[in-house]
């Protein structure tokens, strides 16, 4: 293992508190976009994304449905790109989430939606991307160039940008997020020992289930992706509710369960499914501000914040865990095999 293996990923994880601070300082630009959205009064929201951005879009779906009380759905790009569907999207808000802004399918979806009457907003880390040109409005997540293939700082910044956008649409001032930079610093520092212990605990693991409910479900999905693409683990993610409907049968003493549980209704709802997997002998690692409140064999604490902002902090120790496991298993998380920074699909 070389000294530089995973160095880019490590650096980019550490950059996130400063990126959050910069994004909060630029909130006025996001509020300007939100003002247009609020004025247009959409009746429905669609979110289009792929990969890590799709998990950020799932988080935004919870935000839209809960904070704005609007129905929201995740778009299926192939209905446009492969099947040529052209639904009437009058008075619909389409938010396209892409770190690179260069995915051909998301570009086509955005262009088509705009022609069909949607108000289109691009949320991306590339301000001069084709996606920004295609959309009527855009939000810059301001994370700077990401060199590691595995998305870390762009994912965290996208979560915060989406929160600030939705919060501003409802007339909020972003005050709930004001302490996030400091809380992110605390999360990275205070959880380090517990993360290192988890790395040692799961070094030889081959199978993991990740699970959560509510806002944190996005974190569980992103955790499974990060572990699979950096450590080549067989990782599957489930809602805590769905876990009890069949997948729990595949959980046994040879399975580790990474459970995301933060204070609030979503974290409270995780107690029952975690009691069920604990009874089956699974090794449960709980991450979040409610980690101490759920059945677990190992815990990684996260400072408490408003429940709707918890995913911005929860993902940090997940990223540290994915980095550490990749390094100790002899892999390079900066350059996972078979992956490129921009995935082009249609």
What is the level 1 CATH name of the largest domain?
A: Alpha Beta
Q: CATH superfamily of the largest domain, please?
A: Glucose-6-phosphate isomerase like protein, domain 1
CATH architecture of the largest domain: 3-Layer(aba) Sandwich
**N-end to C-end Cα span:** 37 Å
Secondary-structure element pattern, one letter each: HHHEHEHEHEHEHHHEHEHEHHEEH
Largest sheet: 5 strands, parallel
The computed structural class is alpha/beta
Question: Strands of the largest sheet, in order across it?
Answer: 2-1-3-4-5
GO molecular function, one term: carbohydrate derivative binding
InterPro entries: GlmS/AgaS_SIS, GlmS/FrlB_SIS, SIS_dom, SIS_dom_sf
EC number: 2.6.1.16
Organism: Saccharopolyspora hordei
Description:
- By secondary structure, this protein is an alpha/beta fold.
- It has two domains: 7-177, Rossmann fold (3-Layer(aba) Sandwich); 180-328, 3-Layer(aba) Sandwich (Rossmann fold), CATH 3.40.50.10490.
- It has 15 helices and ten strands.
- It has helices spanning 7-14, 16-25, 27-40, 51-67, 77-81, 104-115, 130-134, 153-169, 180-190, 192-201, 217-231, 240-243, 265-268, 271-279, 310-328, and strands at residues 44-49, 72-74, 92-98, 119-124, 137-140, 207-212, 234-239, 256-260, 283-288, 298-301.
- The strands form two sheets. A five-stranded parallel beta sheet has the order 2-1-3-4-5, sandwiched between helices.
- Helix 4 links the parallel strand 1 and strand 2.
- Helix 3 (27-40) crosses helix 8 (153-169), helix 4 runs antiparallel to helix 11 and helix 10 packs across helix 15 (310-328).
- The two termini are 37 Å apart.
- The mean pLDDT is 93.
